[in-house]
From TrEMBL, chain A:
Protein's name according to its UniProt entry: Monosaccharide ABC transporter membrane protein, CUT2 family
Transmembrane region(s): 20-38, 50-73, 80-100, 106-128, 135-153, 173-193, 229-247, 259-276, 283-300, 306-325
Topology relative to the membrane: Multi-pass membrane protein
Localization, UniProt: Cell membrane
PANTHER family named among the record's database cross-references: ABC TRANSPORTER PERMEASE PROTEIN YPHD-RELATED-RELATED, RIBOSE IMPORT PERMEASE PROTEIN RBSC
Key words, A-Z: Cell membrane, Membrane, Transmembrane, Transmembrane helix
Organism: Tranquillimonas rosea
Lineage, opening ranks: Bacteria, Pseudomonadati, Pseudomonadota, Alphaproteobacteria, Rhodobacterales
GO molecular function: transmembrane transporter activity
Highest rank taxon of the organism: Bacteria
Automatic annotation (TrEMBL), chain B:
Gene3D superfamilies xref list: P-loop containing nucleotide triphosphate hydrolases
PANTHER family linked: CARBOHYDRATE TRANSPORT ATP-BINDING PROTEIN MG119-RELATED, GALACTOFURANOSE TRANSPORTER ATP-BINDING PROTEIN YTFR
Keyword Translocase: yes
GO molecular function: ATP binding; ATP hydrolysis activity
This protein's name: Monosaccharide ABC transporter ATP-binding protein, CUT2 family
Length: 333, 501
């Protein structure tokens, strides 16, 4: 018995190391591959481009890491982002007619996005915890609802931000400090705070405990429902933040805004080493997962060896491989 | 009555991990006879039944069917030979219908397709024999617990059971349902089935059994005709073991101050109107049978279950259904289910240790150095034997898990500790350590409730014993009145005083 224990223990330890290193190695391999294929790959312009594109999914994926770690799931984030974007544009256009193009109008828009994200997250969270409905079902439902609402708001077409307002608001996406644009800065801040929250705070510890065994958490006086709801509220808020960064980029929202973001966010979380069933989460892993997914797309665009249309297929293979590796560690436990 | 045994075990012993739990047991079942097997928890009843039912091979000794030695390699071989065991937990698939369950794994077919008509007719026929008019097309999830029991028996009839082994079939049944079941057992016996019956309710045994065998600590201590045997005789045979010096000297008699006052607490479906108090420095034991509602009562007290009634810690009334409030009032509960509810098996020791008291280790962020010191402290204080500090809680042995769970609970610095089955499934040495810890807690002025199914533990540790039976507090014993017999009598729903007399 004890002999068997020791073997699994050392075996588990070794594989765990590989499990930690796996995503990092994959990221390094992609960077080397990219550099070999195209000399422009490491140019500041391309790096900024990749990071800025990663930022939206990345900010959302950090929130998703907490939801999944606590044993939940949220399929609604892509639709939620589209709905918030549409709402934001309508509110800003309306405010502009009263207050004109200016900081106040943008602030009203930003507040709208944050409040809407918070509320949407709270709805998901409360339906799951108080309503005792499975997360998959609740968020599948809200995913359809938000997608439909934005299509309805846009009357089947596109909602556009007023041209002058877009010019005024534009720097939030295009501007930055020392050549680093705001979406990248915000993504970095969210990731750093998220990493600290996951590893160093009672909230992160409670998320992992609930995902690992919610009965044990309950018997240990953890407010299980409250923490679970908080993960969805946090995610909703971060969807709001991501949308604030996203709207100035195109200045519009339609029924295809944020399409499949939920799957990319979930994929990034899983590739990063967070356990899909919950109990263990890693925010820095999620950041690497997001970068891996964006780099694949970027490399395919820079080369003509493989069609960029195969982007999804390659991402799919990576996701499945990541889960196979995860299973390796779980079996050894 | 035919005297040749149908199924028998001869001189059977069984060991688990080097520890022998059955010592040379003889037991037989004859056609047309109900043979009751009784004993305290852990006496070896389940092991005996599993060996008879082909679920476990004996370590030594033989199993004989129709007079010749057999060795069933799996329970389905035993079933093929007409030996069917009905487990305490039902073996039914909730989402399938009654008839689908009855024929599960041996469905009748007509060509490529299921022969539903015949299966339905047969199921109905077997249920009718049990005087049960259940619609075979209902889903099992829709039928009552007693009907499920009937379906289990119908399943056994469908397998042409010659031997029926029933593990506490009435534990989940009401009085009326029990009556129906006992009538049914009598009818099956008259039809020539050999029946093994176990129950903790001695009145049932007295009513239904033709013969009674009593197990104690893995040996047969009594085997005789039921005729003329009283419930008291059975209870006396079941207990009557000597006390060992496993237990530390009891802590000094508690002072008068009441620290916990529970009044009229009910947990729907489990506990009705329970009231008790606890004093500083006291060890109060809750005894009773498994399923008497002790765990549910305690979970209701600390707010882990919906409950009505009042709980006061000192002067303070606890809000209902709020574990966190109970913890901050200094009242904690240590679960009996350490793997399912106590510890995060795939997390390391430190994370488990501090989970209940995490607020003491975290301001904005968690102080990991303090956490590490707490682990060092707990390892030495509770003698947790961990090969490596980084190991997962699931890799500890059962006894060390229990000590880690104790350490985790005590880290919250409670004034009142409720410990449910403190020594379940752990070895004797660790038991002794845990008894020592409990005694020390009381001596330090904390108040301790011990819920235990082990009689010796209750007697060895407690200043006062509350006995529960069927969801109610059946009685309370103090001082010299605490003893095996009065506790068993109360737990069985009898009057404690008669036994003393």
């Amino acid at each position: 018995m004890s002999a068997a224990d020791t073997t699994t223990q050392t075996g588990g330890g070794r594989r765990l190391d590989f499990h930690v290193l796996g995503p990092v190695l994959a990221l390094i391999a992609l960077i080397v591959l990219g550099t070999l294929i195209n000399t422009n790959f490491l140019s500041p312009g391309n790096i900024t481009n990749v990071l800025a594109r990663s930022a939206f999914i990345g900010i959302i994926a950090v929130g998703m890491t907490f939801v999944i770690t606590a044993g939940g799931l949220d399929l609604s984030v892509g639709s939620m982002a589209a709905f918030i974007a549409g709402l934001m544009i309508i509110v800003m256009n309306a405010t502009m007619s009263v207050m004109g193009v200016g900081l106040m109008t943008v602030i009203v828009g930003i507040l709208t996005a944050l409040v809407a994200g918070l509320a949407a997250g709270a709805i998901n969270g409360l339906l799951i915890t108080r309503g005792r409905i499975e997360a998959f079902i609740v968020t599948l439902g809200t995913m359809g609802i938000y997608r439909s609402l934005v299509t309805w708001l846009a009357d089947g077409g596109t909602l556009s931000l007023d041209f002058d307002l877009r010019t005024f608001y534009g720097p939030v996406y295009y501007g930055g400090i020392l050549g680093v644009t705001w979406p990248i800065i915000v993504f970095a801040l969210v990731a750093i705070v998220g990493e600290i929250a996951m590893r160093q705070t009672a909230f992160g510890r409670h998320c992992a405990a609930i995902g690992s065994n919610d009965q044990v958490a309950r018997y240990s006086a953890v407010h299980v429902d409250r923490v679970r709801t908080a993960t969805y509220v946090l995610l909703g808020l971060l969807v709001g933040v991501a949308t604030i960064m996203y709207v100035p980029r195109l200045g519009s929202a339609s029924s295809s805004t944020g399409l499949l973001w939920e799957l990319e966010a979930i994929a990034a979380v899983i590739i990063g080493g967070t356990v899909l069933k919950g109990g263990f989460g890693r925010v820095w892993g999620t950041v690497i997962g997001v970068l891996i997914l964006s780099l694949i797309g970027n490399i395919l665009n820079l080369t003509d060896v493989v069609s960029p249309y195969l982007n999804g297929a390659i991402q799919g293979v990576i996701i499945i491989l990541a889960v196979v590796m995860q299973r390796g560690t779980n079996v050894s436990r | 009555m035919n005297d040749a045994p149908l199924l028998a075990i001869r001189d059977v012993s069984r060991s688990f991990g080097g520890i022998e739990v059955l010592h040379g047991v003889d037991f037989d079942l004859r056609p047309g006879e109900v043979h009751a097997l009784i004993g305290e928890n852990g006496a070896g009843k389940s092991t005996t039944m599993k060996i008879l039912g082909g679920y476990l091979p004996p370590s030594s000794g033989t199993v004989e069917l129709d007079g010749s030695t057999v060795s069933f390699s799996a329970s389905d071989e035993a079933e093929a030979a007409g030996v069917v065991m009905i487990h305490q937990e039902f073996n039914l698939t909730e989402q399938l219908t009654v008839e689908e369950n009855v024929f599960l794994g041996r469905e009748l077919t007509k060509g490529l397709f299921l022969d539903k008509t015949t299966m339905r007719a047969r199921t109905r026929e077997w249920l009718e024999r049990l005087d049960c008019h259940l619609d075979p097309t209902l889903r099992v999830s829709q039928i009552s617990v007693s009907d499920k029991q009937m379906v289990e028996i119908a399943k056994a009839l469908g397998r042409n059971a010659r031997v029926l082994i029933m593990d506490e079939p009435t534990a989940v049944l009401t009085r009326r349902e029990t009556d129906i079941l006992l009538d049914l057992i009598a009818r099956l016996r008259d039809e020539g089935t050999a029946i093994l019956y176990t129950s903790h309710k001695l009145d049932e045994i007295a009513r239904i059994a033709d013969r009674v065998t009593v197990l104690r600590d893995g040996s047969v201590v009594m085997a005789q005709e039921a005729e003329g045997l009283t419930e008291d005789d059975m209870a006396r045979a079941m207990v009557g073991r000597e006390m060992s010096d496993l237990y530390p000297d009891k802590a000094p008699e508690p002072s008068g101050e009441t620290v916990l006052d529970v009044q009229g607490l009910s947990v729907p479906g489990h506990v009705r109107d329970a009231s008790f108090t606890l004093r500083r420095g006291e060890v109060l034991a809750f005894a009773g049978l498994v399923g008497a509602g002790r765990t549910e009562l305690m979970e209701g007290v600390v707010g882990l279950r919906e409950a009505t009634g009042s709980v006061h810690v000192g002067e303070r009334k606890l809000p209902p259904n709020n574990v966190a409030a109970a913890r901050s009032a200094g009242l904690v509960y240590l679960t009996e289910d350490r793997k399912g509810r106590g510890l995060l098996l795939n997390k390391n020791l430190a994370e488990n240790l501090t989970l209940l008291a995490l607020n003491r280790f975290s301001g904005v962020t968690i102080d990991k150095r303090a956490e590490d010191e707490a682990l060092t402290d707990a390892i030495s204080r509770y003698d947790i034997r961990a090969g490596d500090r980084g190991m997962l809680a699931g890799q500890l042995s059962g006894g060390n898990q229990q000590k880690l769970l104790l350490a985790k609970t005590m880290l919250a610095e409670p004034d009142i500790v409720i410990i449910d089955e403190p020594t379940r499934g752990i070895d004797i040495g660790t038991k002794q350590q845990i008894y020592g810890i409990i005694q020390r807690l009381a001596a330090e002025g904390k108040a301790v409730i011990v819920v235990s199914s082990e009689m010796a533990e209750v007697i060895g540790l407690a200043h006062r014993v509350v006995v529960m039976a069927q969801g109610r507090i059946a009685g309370e014993l103090t001082g010299d009145d605490i003893g095996d017999e009065p506790i068993v009598r109360l737990a069985m729903g009898l009057d404690a005083k008669e036994a003393a007399a």
